[in-house]
Amino acid sequence: MHRNPLESSFVHLGKWLRGEISGEGSDDMSLLTAAEEANRWFTPEHSKQAMIAVGDWLIADTLAQWMRPYAVPSPENNPALRIGLILAGNLPMVGWHDVLCVLLSGHFAVIKCSSSDAILIPAALSAMSKHGGEEVTSRFEFVPGPMREVDAVIGTGSNNTKRHFEYYFSHVPRILRGQRTSVAVLDGKETEADCVELGNDVFGYFGMGCRSVTKLFLPRGFDLDRLFAAWISWSFLGNHNKYANNYDYHKAIWLLNQDALLENGFVLLKEDRQWVSPVGTLYYEFYDNVIEVEAQLDVYQDGLQCVIRRPEADRLKVSTPVVGLGKAQCPAPWDYADEVDTMKFLLELSLQHD
Question: pTM, whole model, 2 decimals?
């Protein structure tokens, strides 16, 4: 594989994102504050966590490991197509992976940021441009309005938005993503440490990501108090205004409906066969045989991003990727959303335009 002309800029940006350059990137409190002022869900802690996580992708060895399976053509043999990117904004930097894939594949990124995340990604590309100059700035642009004159599109939104995108971009190659969620399947042998790790999957980023656990499958007889005890360190969520408003709203609605609830002041647990619980809440369902759960997971697989499971537990026979407790929010760059290989899609576009 040829050396990517932007490799030095990527590695430098990784240091910027990880806050290894004093006062810059995730070490720049004014940037983190600006992101929170634009979106109150983006606390400085969450923005910093997200920036460090994606910065870890931009270590030279990690980049090499990621790109090794792909045959990336040299720049002179690779037509730079205009790839429209319609980015999600439910988590800080959540659209960055798509931007990175386009730049690594040698194409031109036409970026429409979500209004919910319009600070961090432009700041990252600005920092990369300061290091790489014209070689970087000539590879992307931001568009505020409708996406026009693109050769392909990668878009993420709600299920309704996805249907709109399917119609609007039916004339070009595309990857379109709708809403997904993640679930945990416990086997009852979880230790206290395991339950603590599960808390990261449930509460990380306020539980607002497609990799956030919104439902638990529990063996019948599982003591839910074990989870409450392990999750006490997340009680500070109850002090976050927007999170607390969600908690209070759903508590009021469910109590009016006389639904049975378990609560601890910062999360409502409700036994329910639905999959996507609202912010501040968590659905659970008991099972007698894990085969029943596997059948449900396969039926709903198009709505799932990943399944969380104790690594030592019996292997689940499901199509959805299974990850260990506490690992849901830590994808590697080759863990593609919806299991669609974005890099392969982009490189095949190059071949089609030879």
Answer: 0.94
